[in-house]
Amino acid sequence: MTCQRYTSLTKTVIMPSHRQIFGILSLTIVLSSIFLLSKLTAVSYTQPSYHTDLAATVIFSFGAAILFAWLASGLPGASAATAVSAIYVLVFCLRTGFAGYPLIGVLFVSTLIGYAYGHDKSTLDAAVAFKLEKLDEEMNVLLNKIVDGKKRISSLGEKSNKYSALKNVAESLSTTLSIDEINKLVVASISKTLQKEGRALLFLVNAEKQELALSASAGDMSVRAKKGDIFDQWVLRHRKSLIVEDVTYDFRFPADNAGESRKLFRSLITSPLISENKVIGILRMDGPRESAYTQDDLRLLDIIAGFGAVAIQNAQLYSRTQELAIKDGLTGLFVRRHFMERFRKELSRAARKKGVLSLLILDIDNFKEYNDRFGHMAGDIVLKYIARLLNSAVRGGDIVARYGGEEMVVLLCDRNKKEAVQEAEKIRKVLKKSPLTLRRQTAAVTVSGGLAVYPDDATLEEELIRIADERLYKAKAAGRDKICSA
Question: What is the 8-class DSSP label of residue 394?
């Protein structure tokens, strides 16, 4: 490009001015020489030497004019100057008798010199022009390489920013074990990493129902399909990522089913969260414009989905570990150690607020007979059955735990003795009215219970437990299937 400008400038500005000067000089010399020859023709022959010397000088000046004509306009101008000069010299010699015919050769020598110069100049100009064209081509190639290099640098910069964002995502996910926080971090990281408009959705698989459930979302658009749509079901079924450039024209999905989706989005990318060879969730991003996402975006989404799957699995394992530490593995009820910690806290709270608190200890009647009659597995079935009924029978703030063996304990918060007795009787009746089938035989399950109330019966936890336990044995001694509160 620079070479082109230089060549154009040389041709249009510098060279024309020189040629004009040479043309003016050539024309001036020719006219002056013709004028002098005309004067010399009229001069008398009284001064022959002067006439001879001046005529030779004039003829030689024609040679200079021819050279200037070559410089000014090349062969056409030089030919015209040579012809005019030769004609005037011949006419001069014929009229004056001047023996200057040999000097006409000077004109042709000048013509040959000019021709040689013009030829060499043309060759040189062609070589220079060729080199300038080559330089111009090389410059264009270099400029294209520079442009491509800038594009690559820009692309690498964008990729670097995205991978840096992925690094931050991985670090953030590794610092929390809360599933809710992980879900929020995962959907928030999608927009930051992909830098695309649209909404981000995270669905997790409900292990019991084996269906998707929306766990977290980010974006301005509403989410109608809380359990996923045909695109999420496709990913769940095929266990692989999906990119849809336009939901209206994708042959994999019926137009009727995609019609409702078109009102919310036109294109999407979605990836499965896979843990231990099982799909545990679906991560997705969709937007209102068609072809909004690329294969690179899908690859980044796959990476985030991989991070999310590991983080969610770790959080679930941690939650299970925590749960196993405070819950009984068979019944799912709190273990005795955790119950005692909660009991102390609730007792302290009741004392501080001058409230009431009731402790109910339950024991399954004739528990050994279930094992003897139906086998040892029957005892475990009865315990799990009773635990499930207790959890469904008590109030939300109450605490149910396995106290030991076939004994279970219920902490009735904010209930005085009268309310606690009514609650205990309700629990006993619920259990009695819910017979259990063991080996195709119906077995009635009853419990006996002892009730102690703070602060009416005692103010210390050990005393409350002792009193409730004594009343439990009193209920059993009275014939079982009873609640004793005094």
Answer: S
Residues 6+ apart with CB under 8 A from 70: 77, 78, 114, 115, 117, 118
Q: Is residue 171 part of a domain?
A: no
> Measuring CA to CA, which residue among 192, 163, 205, 293 is closest to residue 241?
293
Cα distance between residue 481 and residue 479, in whole Å: 7
Please answer whether residues 191 and 199 qualify as being in contact, where contact means their C-beta atoms are separated by less than 8 angstroms. Answer: no
b/e sequence 6-31, b meaning 16+ C-beta within 10 Å: eeeeeeeeeeeeebeebbebbbebbe
Query: In the chain, how many domains are there?
Result: 3
- Answer yes or no: is 168 within a domain: no
Give the E-state strand segments of 301-406 in sequence order: 357-364, 399-404
Q: What is the pLDDT along the chain (486 residues), one digit of tens a residue?
A: 444 444 443 343 335 566 778 778 777 777 777 777 676 666 544 444 445 666 677 767 777 777 777 777 777 777 777 777 777 777 777 766 666 666 667 667 777 777 777 677 778 878 888 888 888 888 888 888 888 888 877 766 666 666 676 677 777 777 787 888 888 888 888 888 888 888 899 999 987 778 898 988 887 666 667 888 889 989 999 999 999 998 888 878 876 655 566 778 889 999 999 988 889 999 999 988 888 899 989 998 998 898 888 888 888 888 877 777 788 888 888 899 899 999 999 999 999 999 999 999 999 888 888 877 877 788 888 888 889 888 888 888 889 999 888 899 999 988 888 999 999 999 888 888 887 877 777 778 889 999 999 999 998 999 999 999 999 999 999 888 899 988
Residue the block writes with tokens 């990729």: 159
Q: Do 355 and 416 fall within a single domain?
A: yes
Instruction: Note whether 383 and 439 are same-domain residues.
Output: yes
Instruction: Report the C-alpha gap between 121 and 232 in whole angstroms.
Output: 77
Residue 456: which domain range? Answer: 336-484
Backbone angle region of 102, left / alpha / beta, with phi > 0 → left and psi within -120 to 50 → alpha:
alpha
Q: At how many degrees (to 10) do helices 295-326 and 179-194 cross?
A: 170
**Assessment of whether the complete model's pTM goes beyond 0.70:** no
| SS3 at position 46 | coil
CATH number at residue 230: 3.30.450.40
